[in-house]
Design brief:
The protein is built from eight helices and ten strands. It comes from Duganella guangzhouensis.
Length: 270
């Protein structure tokens, strides 16, 4: 399946010239209510009867309470938590709503190579039933892990903290079913690199983000959306990519590397 990042021409040139990906602080995404909705879905799952064996598992009640409280705190004030950084991608390679919402260009990634370099790709979940099933499974796993921490040390250890992190990551993949056509996937990162958190201007606000380096092997194709003079845009992009290819073929000793340039099949309407 395709793995596409819809963006604008400036971002395409920047990524090809200096291969780095930008991850935006989850709290500052365009639809920042999504994460809160996801955590609320996890909290709601606590109203469903948990597996009966948990009632008899050592320290499971205390663990269940700990996990529940962690989620409730996230709903009430997520600003107190370490940030999560997200890059959004799509499984749809020529989607009109995405062309309209972004800047007429898209980068297609080699999924195998990209996830080798940044192994944190998660598919978004749209259906309520699927969200509930995923929530129950992840909650059960977290409660088991935290209860084992309590049983061993009476405190939450590294594994328990990682289990809570996994819950937050799951919450960030829950999306409203009305957006299912986007088939969104997300790269989710919770570690701040040595370069630290950077900021860019959006309207009247500074948006926190981080950058992660990749190699050009991760980039498979550049897509050019519906536009006036698409043929000219394709021609100049092909020439630019050929220059990038030559430099990378020499640097990486991979003489077969190339970047496909693909035009949208959707007709342009002014």
């Amino acid at each position: 399946m395709a793995l596409i990042h819809y963006t604008d021409l400036n971002a395409v040139v920047s990524i090809l010239t200096e291969p780095k990906l930008r991850f935006t602080d989850l709290r500052y995404l365009n639809d920042k209510a999504e994460f809160k909705h996801g955590v609320e879905q996890l909290c709601n799952a606590f109203t469903i009867v948990m597996p009966s064996w948990m009632e008899y598992h050592p320290r499971s009640k205390a663990a269940r309470e700990y996990v529940h409280n962690a989620l409730q705190r996230a709903v009430s004030d997520f600003s107190q938590y370490n940030p999560y950084f997200v890059m959004s991608l799509s499984r749809r390679s020529d989607l009109l709503s995405q062309w309209r919402g972004y800047g007429h260009y898209a980068i297609e990634f080699n999924e195998e190579e990209l996830t080798r370099q940044i192994p944190s790709l998660r598919e978004c979940i749209y259906g309520e039933t699927e969200q509930q099933q995923a929530a129950l499974q992840c909650l059960s796993d977290a409660i088991i892990i935290v209860s084992k921490d309590f049983q061993s040390n009476d405190v939450v250890g590294i594994k328990g903290a990682e289990a809570i992190t996994t819950l937050y990551e799951l919450a960030s993949t829950f999306k409203n079913g009305g957006f299912v056509e986007e088939q969104e996937t997300r790269l989710i990162v919770d570690e701040v690199p040595n370069g630290g958190i950077q900021y860019r201007v959006r309207g009247q606000m500074l948006i926190p983000y981080i950058e992660r380096p990749i190699t050009l092997d991760c980039i498979k194709a550049i897509h050019v959306g519906p536009m006036a003079d698409q043929g000219a845009a394709l021609l100049s992009m092909r020439g630019f990519c050929e220059r990038i290819e030559r430099d990378w073929q020499i640097e990486s000793s991979n003489i077969e590397y190339w970047i496909e340039v693909i035009g949208s099949k959707i007709p342009f309407r002014a």
